[in-house]
Design brief:
5 strands, disordered C terminus, five-stranded mixed sheet
């Protein structure tokens, strides 16, 4: 009887240890250290998306934890050396997509995180592939009657700072503006309308898909990846037409479970 009790106690301890595993991820939007340059005083797209992903992480019952952007900014403000390192590293990534693993390892260590999620967003047109900020684009479009099809492109890269490798990455792209490609905000209310559309896209598409696919990297097969069932909006909102990683379908043979794009693997 005593042996049975001891075995039961050991088993319960093992179970509780497994359930207590938590992965700490530092989410860094590429615009984190930039001063707001838009007169609307809205957050940049990468910050909006990062905030929504952080909320999703912290709602996983302790599986993934992430410091919010207010905590991150406060710590950077108090530590000038850390702030300079973060600013240099993010701008380097934003301009050339160069990942400075050594610097990111130092930055994430300050927040007790072993993984980093880099979030970068920019707006392009078919006429010009130069990336601009979403609010900068609004200001440009406010001055001229521009009818180019704007696209918001968002890149997410999850890094393992222990092994210096990419665990997961994905790019999301969506069309901005109305059905006739107009995209402008000549006053605050119009800008606020665009902000609401961007927030909806962030919550319902990017944050939902990214958080679940990243959770699968740490807890394989714990959940199913987000399925793509998005229809075009005919009311002038952001069109959610990005293809999110799906489970492959085959009528002839059984396929292995698919959980999104992975570059190098774990």
């Amino acid at each position: 009887m005593k042996l049975f009790i001891n075995l039961a106690l050991i088993f319960s301890l093992l179970i509780s240890t497994v359930q207590a595993v938590t992965f700490d991820v530092l989410v860094l939007p590429a615009d984190l250290t930039n001063t707001k340059g838009n007169y609307y005083a809205f957050d940049e797209a990468s910050e909006i998306i990062s905030n929504d992903i952080i909320k999703k992480f912290n709602a996983t019952n302790g599986k993934i934890k992430s410091p919010n952007l207010y905590e991150v900014k406060s710590k950077l403000h108090k530590n000038s050396e850390l702030n300079r390192l973060t600013d240099t590293t993010l701008k380097k990534y934003q301009k050339s997509n160069t990942i400075d693993y050594e610097s990111l390892k130092k930055i994430s260590a300050e927040f007790n995180c072993k993984s980093v999620l880099l979030v970068s967003s920019g707006v392009t047109t078919n006429k010009n592939r130069t990336k601009r900020g979403v609010w900068e684009t609004l200001e440009i479009a406010s001055l001229f009657d521009i009818s180019y099809p704007y696209r918001l492109e968002t890149s997410l890269v999850l890094l393992d700072n222990i092994n210096d490798l990419v665990m997961w990455s994905n790019t999301y792209s969506t069309r901005l503006g109305t059905n006739n490609n107009t995209f402008y905000a000549k006053n605050y209310s119009q800008a606020a309308e665009q902000y609401e559309k961007l927030s909806l896209y962030s919550k319902s598409v990017i944050a939902e898909s990214a958080s679940q696919n990243i959770l699968l990297r740490f807890f394989p097969k714990a959940i199913r990846p987000v399925e793509t069932k998005v229809e075009n909006n005919s009311g002038g909102a952001l069109r959610f037409d990005k293809t999110i990683p799906e489970k492959p379908k085959s009528n002839t043979e059984k396929q292995e479970d698919f959980f999104g794009d992975m570059i190098y693997g774990i």
